[in-house]
Amino acid sequence: MTKILVIEDEQTVRENLLDLLGSENFDTIGAANGKIGVKLAHSEAPDLILCDLMMPELDGFGVLTALRQEQLTATIPFIFITAKATKTDFRQGMDLGADDYITKPFTRAELLSAIDSRLQKQAILKQQFSASTSVNTSNSEMLIVKNILRRSIEQVQFREFYIEYQPQVDLQSGYICGAEALLRWQSPELGIVATSELISLAESTGLIIPIGEWVLQSVCEQNKAWRDAGYSPLRIAVNLSARQFTHPDLSKKIVAFLAQNNLEPDYLELELTESLIVQDMNMAIATMSELRALGVKIAIDDFGTGQSSLMYLKKLPINKLKLDRYFIHNVNNDYQKAAITTALIQMGHNLKFQVIAEGVETEEELDFLRQNRCDAMQGFLFSRPIPAVEFEKFLSDD
pLDDT tens digit string along 95-136? Predict the structure, then answer.
């Protein structure tokens, strides 16, 4: 059953909407304000969100911004319902990633039509993005999506892409010690596309190579811009896909991007997943050794949930282990997670690796990591991934 979240502070309006949708056999959830709505979107994972624009404390724009900044909620179809219908408001909502905009008063037919249209579009996109790379490319919808991605690269020259940065904080000093760069794509036709779906599509088309190069180049340019502005050089981590990692020109491209921006290799970190490494362990070790020889840093991402064998860990030429958020979530109340996380931190230190925890969301989780001498953290407790301009505020305060 399709689940719809209704975020509306006026009780009568909210209840009428819930009754209307319930009579159409939708599974409904009601939120009395924007803050509650954001929490319910994260916990309930609705198939679509209807949200009032004008609400106290956190308005509809604020709700949409919060949801689009997190991968789990970034692609949920979002429809504004409001009596405020100026062109400025409409444009702002679309720029933030809204899928539709219904003005009050609206008819039952208008509301249901908007919902049905957006759900159908979402269903097509999910079907195509979740398809494996062996999907028959004669499929018309898949071709459309692939052509949209190709156009955004070849014709629009990456203008629909942007990078957000999530700060990494040293747990001993409390200062920002680095950042992870996260690719985003906001397509006029598709809306904001989840990073996992984008990478899957780009891998299947081979477009991951130019996209990956654009990310590496952009990150190096951004780091240089921050340094030129007077900020201390910062180590920025970039995720590598499987096809990027095995591309013969990877090292050459990295050397070029670093040289173009007069950036020392120590300020670039490459993140690899365990599943990528185990595809061909000997090849992976050789490639990582080559990259390490350049001076760049290597990290294993989402450590603990992949397939790597501990017997190989000591052979990997890496600098950092990133503990998956699964082990961090509620670690202070789960003795099994606590035991595993403590052991992983100790093992990493024994192997001379830096250990950073991902997905830290509460003070209790942070206290546990400090007590067990984890080196660094990143997570919503400190900051969500944010645009470069906002990240500069952290650097200034730091």
Answer: 677 878 888 888 888 898 889 888 877 776 665 555 443 444
Distance from C-alpha of 110 to C-alpha of 144, rounded to nearest angstrom: 28
CB distance 48 to 17 below 8 Å: no
Three-state secondary structure string covering 321-390: EEECHHHHCCCCCCHHHHHHHHHHHHHHHHCCCEEEECCCCCHHHHHHHHHCCCCEECCCCCCCCEEHHH
Q: What is the pTM of this model?
A: 0.67
C-alpha to C-alpha distance for 33 and 270, rounded to whole angstroms: 41
Cα–Cα nearest to 385, from 74, 50, 4 = 74
Q: What is the 3-state secondary structure (H, E, C) of 220-271?
A: HHHHHHHHHCCCCCCEEEEECCHHHHCCCCHHHHHHHHHHHCCCCHHHEEEE
Helix 250-260 and helix 281-294, axial crossing angle in degrees, nearest 10:
20
Return d(Cα 203, Cα 80) in angstroms, integer: 34
Cα separation of the two ends of the chain: 48
Which amino acid makes up residue 246? T
Q: What residue has token string 């906002």?
A: 390
Contact in structure between 197 and 220 (CB atoms under 8 Å): no
Q: State the chain's maximal CA–CA distance in angstroms.
A: 66
**Tokens coding 220:** 């190096």
C-alpha closest to that of 388 among 171, 236, 241, 248: 236
Per-residue DSSP letters for 134-194? Answer: TS-TT-HHHHHHHHHHHHHHHTSTTTTEEEEEEEEEETTT-SEEEEEEEEEEEETTTEEEP
